[in-house]
Design goal:
The complex is a heterodimer of chains A (111) and B (114). Chain A is mainly beta and 111 residues long. Chain A has no helices and eleven strands. The N and C termini of chain A lie far apart (37 Å). In chain A, 32% of the residues are buried. The model of chain A has no long low-confidence stretch (mean pLDDT 94). Chain B has no helices and eleven strands. Chain B is globular. Classes of the chains: A mainly beta (111), B mainly beta (114). At the A-B interface, β5 of A face β5, β9 and β10 of B.
């Protein structure tokens, strides 16, 4: 049973466009929501993370939007570049060390 | 700093064979993890360790064993390999406890069981 549901499974965006990936969770005890980026043949790497006391966090072209009442959070990639082509995983955790990952979204940015 | 290293990169096993996936980290992290990644399923936690000599089961531990004799190394043992264990295996480490610590992943081991 997936504790974090992620959509879409894949998306294609033109260079310069906006990529949006959505995640939903049920467990209200989750209090940390990271996004990991994975390039083909590599391990995932932390991209950006948010805690539920803020509704938005921005780092460069990457923004997390968080809606605590709806139990949803999303990743926006602004001005998408070919180098952003990767698989993105949302995740959630409580105060213990275990991360629950979403199923992943493969983003392809066309030049 | 090499970070988290894993060997081998790729392995083909026959059903019933056993093998050990190696993982090492040079960041002096206490916490280490093993995940498996299957297409469309994300990453599932197999085992984790909070320090040398201490290990515990994750979501999908059946068919696997681990040991942690040193801070640096966290091998994953597959006994009696089955086709269902065909997957990509990632080892990760983090500095301390709490799910809010960044986990650093190795490059993965691709395993094919035929």
């Amino acid at each position: 049973q997936q504790q974090v549901k992620q959509s879409p499974q894949s998306l294609i965006v033109q260079k310069g466009g906006i990529s949006i990936i959505n995640c939903a969770y049920e467990n209200t005890a989750f209090d940390y929501f990271p996004w990991y980026q994975q390039f083909p043949g590599k391990g995932p790497a932390l991209l950006i993370a948010i805690r539920p006391d803020v509704s938005e966090k921005k780092e460069g072209r990457f923004t997390i939007s968080f809606n605590k009442s709806a139990k949803q959070f999303s990743l926006h990639i602004m001005d998408s570049q070919p180098g952003d082509s990767a698989t993105y995983f949302c995740a959630a955790s409580m105060t213990d060390y275990k991360l629950s990952f979403g199923a992943g979204t493969t983003v392809t940015v066309r030049a | 700093n090499a970070g988290v290293t894993q060997t081998p990169k790729f392995r083909i096993l026959k059903i019933g064979q056993s093998m050990t996936l190696q993982c090492a980290q040079d960041m002096n992290h206490n916490y280490m993890y093993w995940y498996r990644q299957d297409p469309g399923m994300g990453l599932k936690l197999i085992y984790y360790s909070v320090g040398a000599g201490i290990t515990d089961k994750g979501e999908v531990p059946n068919g696997y064993n681990v040991s942690r004799s040193t801070t640096e190394d966290f091998p994953l043992r597959l006994e009696l390999a089955a086709p269902s264990q065909t997957s990509v295996y990632f080892c990760a480490s983090s500095n301390s406890g709490g799910g809010q610590e960044t986990q650093y992943f190795g490059p993965g081991t691709r395993l094919l069981v035929l």
